[in-house]
Every structure is written in C-alpha cells, then in structure tokens.
Amino acid sequence: MPQSLYKLLAHIVFSTKHRADLITPEIEHELFGYIHGIVENNGAKLMIANGTTNHIHLLVSLPKKIDLSELIGDIKRNSSSWMKEQDTKFADFYWQKGYGAFSVGQSQVDVVMNYIKQQKHHHAKQDFQDEYRSFLQQCEIEYDERYVWD
Q: pTM, whole model, 2 decimals?
C-alpha cells in the first residue's frame, strides 16, 4: 500500500487536583475554547469537550505525529497556566497528575459524544471517582486505588 492512512480517536478524562470544584460555569466555555486551541495547535482535532466543576472529558482525533501523553501534557500545562491568569480565585488551579485515555471506534463516536454532552446530568447521579472506576473496569484496565487519585 503506497499511502499510510490513519485515524485514532481517544476519549480523554482527567480531574482537577483533589477534585476541587474550580471549573465554574462562568469560565467553562472559555476554558474549553482555550483547550480547543491547544489541541488544534498540536495538529489534533477536538471533537467535543465537556465536564463538571471538577473534571473534563475530551474526544480527540489524534494526528500521526504526536504522542498522546505529549498532547495531554500540553493541554494540562497550558490550560492550567491560562486559568491562573484569568482571576485570582483560580490561583490554586491544578490538574491531577494522571489521566485516563480510552480508545474509541468510529462506530462509537455518537455514543461517546452524547455521553460527554450529558456530563452535568450524568453527575447528578454519580460522582467522578465512581465514573472513572467504571471506565477502568469496562476497559479491563488493572489499577491500584492508592495511585489513581491525588
């Protein structure tokens, strides 16, 4: 085959440090817009972003030339700095050290996008930690509870 064709989709999830409720409704839209710019500047495509006051979900189409952990590092580092510049009430804004990244098949894009759209409704019934454990179990990812949270 003379041409290399590529499409990798990732559902990325991470929280604020200690799940602090710092992503306020007033800043949320701007934060996701800023993250969109970071993703695009890395050659990736942000398909949807949403979350709650203490965590975010991103559906990203990854480019060939960037490592996922590099992209997430850029998102977390740059958006954390940006948040701190917005207002002194965000002076203690940090993302958790880790993240979850889950592969998404093209046939599941609509399901994942709908799930991400419904985050606020979903979290009226389930907290972030239970949701995250559920992802890990569904994807059969072994983990040690002592090292999942910070």
A: 0.91
